[in-house]
Fold MFS transporter.
Amino acid sequence: MADRRRWIVLGLVFVAIVLNYVDRQILALLKPTLQAEFDWSDRDYSHMASAFQFAAAVAFLGTGWFIDKIGLRWGFAIGVGVWSLAGMAHAFATTVSGFVASRAVLGAAESIGTPAAVKTAATYFGGKDRSVALGLVGIAPNIGAILTPLLIPVMALMFGWKATFLIAGGLGLVWVVAWLMMRIPPQPNAARDAAAPKIAWSSLLKDRRQWAVILGKALTDQVWWFLLFFMPDMFHRTFGLSQGTLGLPVAFVYFMAALGGLSGGFLPARLLRRGWSVNAARKTSMLIYALLIVPIPVLVGVDSAWVAAAILGLGLFAHQGFSTNLFGLTTDIFPARIVGSAIGIGAFAGNLSGMAMIEFAGWSLDNGHGYLPMFLICSLTYLAALAAIQLILPRVVAIDEDADDGTAAPVIAH
């Protein structure tokens, strides 16, 4: 029964992350409509997206600790409840500052999603099952990103843009009720983890394992955030697609991203079953994904929206595969009781780099440089991230949870 319940818990976490990405993507899809109604510039829109990123980045400094301290049940419920209300607040905004404030609260609350999802996998799943669990959770953002462009433009045309924010936020509140009604199984080794000495963040920042996660997230998350906030605009601006027609190619891109996240869990698991070391399985998988995104700058010469969608789809397939393995690497090298904090610190760096990329994109578009500078960054940053991880962690050996004595001793073999 406990084994079955852990998969139900994972399913609920999956749904929460889907809703997380629905809420954050609505603004990008409604940009043409809202930009016309409120007369926004590209820089105004970038500032709204940056407000989300900055608030999420700052919140990540505490949400990892929060979910480790409060626990999954109440910690996740509070986070989803607050972000759902913040999403609904967009319906009542009428100025740029109103949207900025709503985005900031949404970003801060939604930062609970990543550490909660990774902590769920680290807490209830071990070995090969953990990689599969991470892969399944890893496709949740993409499912949300697929459903949003298919449903939101239609809903906006039928009921108005305000209703889309209210309906999406309302679904999150329904999830909170279902989550609190669910009887979550006891956490393995909970007594031992509670008695173990607490790890100060200053200790984590002195641990080079943490810096591998920080650099990996900072170098790669910027790509995801840039494409999440600007891809609908690119299809509208470059190929002339209206709000009602850009949904299908955007959904296709995120469908490919979902496949990448799924493969990012199953590929290393398969390599491990064939006798590969954790070090070889993780890094070989990450290298494959890093190479797949290299061709993305050819987008500037494409004149077909669907060819562009195929190239972007391959790029986000690669991103999600790489990201899933970066999360997996984090659970390999940190004990479950602090993995939320480790991911939170890494996500802080990733959101800051995403904010910088978004602001750079707004500047580039307003000054006539187009999308090429951002695409060049996208093509090289994954290889740079893998190189940084290799330099910091030349050989990774998975931590033995059963032998963990409560310290954060390195598990890097030289």
Observations:
- The domain at 2-403 is CATH 1.20.1250.20 (Growth Hormone; Chain: A;).
- The chain has one domain: 2-403.
